[in-house]
Amino acid sequence: MTTAVDTLAGALARWLPAQRWYAAKDREPREVLVERVTPLLDGDPALRHVLLLVDGERYQVLLGRRAALPAALAGAAIADTPAGVVYAATRDGELMTRLLGRLRAAPRGPVFEPEPGARVALDLPARVLPVEQSNTSLVLGDRYILKLFRRVLPGPHPDVELHRALRAAGTPHVARLLGALTVEVDGGRAALGVLQEFLPDARDGWALATADRTAFAPEAAALGRAVATVHGALADAFGPRNPAVPDLSDTADRLHRRFSALAGGIPELAPFEPALRAAFDRVRTAPGPFTLQRVHGDLHLGQALRSGGGWTIIDFEGEPGQPLAERNAPRHPLQDVATMLRSFDYAAHHGTADPDWARRVRDAFCDGYAGVLADPRDQPALLHALELDKAVYEVAYERANRPDWTAIPLGAVSRLLGAGS
């Protein structure tokens, strides 16, 4: 199958832009190179783990091969080869059921290592979750969830590092980490995925909020308390590395840089630029001092699960498009608060707009947060700037991924600037 994979560059270049997890969906790759192929299973079906270099960015894919694809896998096909049909193996429950066992026994290449004390069954039936974003998630026997990162970056991965720290601290608002998939690249280890406990009765906050806004409103305060509890645990866990700063000039500079990087080529944002930059500059005079810390980095309603009467926060990988150094950098915890508030606004404008609901759940969330840590509303200039920063990011994201949704964050930029003027 290695020879077949080497001939697949053209087919992969056509296939990649259609994948939700591929970062550059707005254009076909210029160069796709097969960097490494690790055989995991021979026969029919066969399974290979593949590292690709796509325009200099490294991705992992799992490729299956069958002499003929069953009808259920027809949509997973990538290319016909003389040896059979090569396809996206994450769509194949038979192959994914065997994945952990093959990685646990692999003598080289990618490996699966359970966490100390974790007893993991390696042959549970697998099913892929239907929604793919920057990663692919598989449910194993309704006991575990295996999240496969698609971009492969050497260095400490926040989704592994933060989960370990939070579980060690006994935080009740995170799922138990059971193991990690890693591979050696560029002279160091890189995370390929994480295995965690699966919460079969869970519903994510977005589904709850958009299904019944009235029923969700009382939950917002509990969610605020959960987020603040996680922030407090992260502050304690990484305390020796939390920098104390007299002001947030570096944060303001970062917001300006992000705007410059994101707004290029988005003419709809040009009229707002002076007001946006003024809001970022007001962060410099916010009353300090401040302590920065590790944060979630990409917190929204889809990253909060309601299960067993409480909230569980998931997906601590940060913004997947950012380098690991950026995602691992200490930030002000209001970054997570701001992104959650933006998520409330999204939910309020999904379908029939209800801005009054957004204000109610916003206040409830902040009330809950203030019951554990400092009230987010005590830093209005910082919170306002961080919400604007997230809204700008959302405009760029929606233009690239869901153009029909661009009006939601663009309208938010206008409303936020009006409210802050």
Bin the strand percentage. 15-25%
CATH-defined superfamily of the largest domain? Aminoglycoside phosphotransferase (APH), C-terminal lobe
CATH class of the largest domain: Alpha Beta
- Mean pLDDT across the residues is 93
Total strands: the figure is 16
CATH topological fold name of the largest domain: Aminoglycoside 3'-phosphotransferase, Chain: A, domain 2
Largest sheet: 6 strands, antiparallel
> Main sheet: which strands, in order across?
6-10-11-9-8-7
Structural class: alpha+beta
Overall geometry? globular
CATH architectural name of the largest domain: Alpha-Beta Complex
The count of domains is 2
What ranges have pLDDT less than 50 throughout 5 or more consecutive residues? none
Tell me the number of helical segments per DSSP (H or I, 4 or more residues long). Answer: 15
Tell me the span between the first and last alpha carbons.
62 Å
- Helical fraction: 25-40%
Return Rg in Å. 22 Å
Protein name: Maltokinase
Subunit structure: Monomer.
Catalytic activity: D-maltose + ATP = alpha-maltose 1-phosphate + ADP + H(+)
Domain Maltokinase N-terminal cap: 15-92
Features:
421 residues; alpha+beta; Aminoglycoside 3'-phosphotransferase, Chain: A, domain 2; 2 domains; six-stranded antiparallel sheet; five-stranded antiparallel sheet; 38% helix; 22% strand; globular
